[in-house]
Amino acid sequence: MLVGVGATRFMLGGGGCGGCRGGVAVSLLVMGSVMVGVAGCGELFGPSKLTIAVANKTYNTFQNSHVYFKDSSFRSGMILPGDRRDFTEYVGVANGEATVEWELATGTKRTLKVMLDRRYDKTTKGTLLFEVYPDSVAMSFTPGGR
């Protein structure tokens, strides 16, 4: 018996009902595998899902902080000294640099640009953490979900 799957045909033994049932089972198995493979392509080849996080490594309270990429921005509320705020997942690719901005309770605003570290794998889900120190911002990437 011949079973068609796209342009490929498989010869299954025997003929009769036994061969027919086997042909249907193999056909469904092959089609199911193809559909699962196609459905999974977005995860494998599409943009990664990132958690964007800001950690306050200063002795001052942040009234607000922002992380800007070329095509999007993330804003938090208050971040206490030593605390960290995680933003919702960002689906996309963060290229080149990020701008990190924070405002102190006194109204003073600071803005620094951060080159995205080469350890950041654009195809891997993970967390981009921006640690804000009094005069600098450090970036790190941790693969995996939170």
Descriptive report:
It is a single chain. With 146 residues, the chain is an alpha+beta fold. It folds into two domains: 2-39; 47-143, Immunoglobulin-like (Sandwich). Helices cover 20% and strands 44% of the residues. The protein contains two helices and ten strands. It has helices at residues 16-39, 41-45; strands spanning 2-5, 8-11, 49-56, 62-68, 73-76, 84-91, 97-104, 109-115, 126-132, 137-143. A four-stranded mixed sheet has the order 6-3-9-10, with no helix packed on it. Strands 5-4-7-8 form a four-stranded antiparallel sheet, with no helix packed on it. Strand 4 and strand 5 form a beta hairpin. The chain is globular. Mean pLDDT is 73; it is low at 1-12 and 24-44.
Distance between the termini: 51 Å
Give the biggest sheet.
Answer: 4 strands, mixed
Count of DSSP strands: 10
Shape: globular
CATH class of the largest domain: Mainly Beta
Order of helix and strand elements from N to C terminus: EEHHEEEEEEEE
Q: Please list the strands of the largest sheet in the order they lie side by side.
A: 6-3-9-10
Rg of Cα set: 25 Å
**In the residues, how many domains can be counted?**
2
The CATH homologous superfamily of the largest domain is termed: Domain of unknown function DUF5300
Name the poorly predicted regions: 1-12, 24-44
Please name the CATH architecture of the largest domain. Sandwich
Integer average pLDDT: 73
Give the amount of beta strand, in percent. Answer: 35-45%
Could you estimate the helical fraction of the residues in percent?
10-25%
> In DSSP terms, counting alpha (H) and pi (I) runs of 4 or more, how many helices?
2
Structural class: alpha+beta
- CATH topology (level 3) name of the largest domain: Immunoglobulin-like
